[in-house]
Amino acid sequence: MKRNYYISEIKLNDQIKYLIWFSDEPVDGLVTDASAHNPKILVFKDKADAKRHADNQNITLVDEEPILQDFDLIASWLENITDEIDCKEFLNCWNMFTDVATTLKVEFKGDKKGKARNRIYDKLFFGNNIPAITPEGEKYLPKWTIEEVGLIAEIMKQGLMMFRNSLKEV
Predict the structure, then answer these.
(1) What is the pLDDT of residues 89-125, one digit of tens each?
(2) N or C: which end of the chain has fewer CB within 10 A?
(3) Residue 2: its pLDDT value, please?
(4) How far apart (Å, rounded) are the C-alpha atoms in residues 147 and 140?
(5) Hey, how many other C-beta atoms are within 10 angstroms of the C-beta on 48?
(6) What residue ranges do the domains of the chain occupy?
């Protein structure tokens, strides 16, 4: 299968930045400074810089508007943990943490399969209410236990720290 590259827009520390994300079944990942001894995910200040880098590396980008992933929302939630969880944002960030961990070959707690972890991930997934799998006229709103909220907090805290530590501004 052909690897497809996309510009990904992130909000982190009250700033909008850009990454180059790729989809290559079965593994997704991010563009790094691969020549470095300790590779980091490349972060660009604007879309034009990301496009220039892609051109310089002979990377063809899929022409699609990036979807914003709000890591500040996760950071803010971690400062005041509640059972009010935005399933879409949390799942998007969780999936990005997985892609970072895969790219850099590091461990991410959210990738360790287990009953509690799988249940939480499924609740986030179904809480997105994707039209193709949600019956018409219905909406799934997950109810979170104290234990689940605690595990989500552990996963998001570790993921956010890993994400922040993996970035290199270009």
Answers:
(1) 999 999 999 999 999 999 999 999 999 999 999 999 9
(2) N
(3) 82
(4) 20
(5) 10
(6) 4-169
- CA dist 121 and 116 (Å) reads 9
Q: What is the mean pLDDT of residues 116-135?
A: 94
How far is residue 19's CA from residue 42's CA, in Å, rounded to a whole number? 6
C-alpha to C-alpha distance for 150 and 39, rounded to whole angstroms: 31
Tokens of 104: 């850099």
Measured CA angle at 18 (ends 14, 19), to 5 deg: 130
Q: What are phi and psi of 29, to 5 degrees?
A: -165, -170
- Strand ranges inside the chain, DSSP E: 4-12, 15-24, 27-30, 41-43, 68-70, 167-169
Q: Both tokens of residue 141?
A: 């709103």
User: What's the pLDDT at 1?
Assistant: 67
Residue 15 amino acid letter? Q
DSSP one-letter code for 82: -
- Quick: pLDDT tens for 73-92: 999 999 999 999 999 999 99
User: Contact, 127 vs 138, CB < 8 A?
Assistant: no
Q: 9, 69 in Cβ contact below 8 A?
A: yes
Please give the structure tokens belonging to residue 46: 């604007």
Burial class, 94, CB count within 10 angstroms (exposed 0-12 / middle 13-18 / buried 19+): buried
The enclosing H or E element of 63 equals: none
The structure tokens listed for 31 are 């563009």
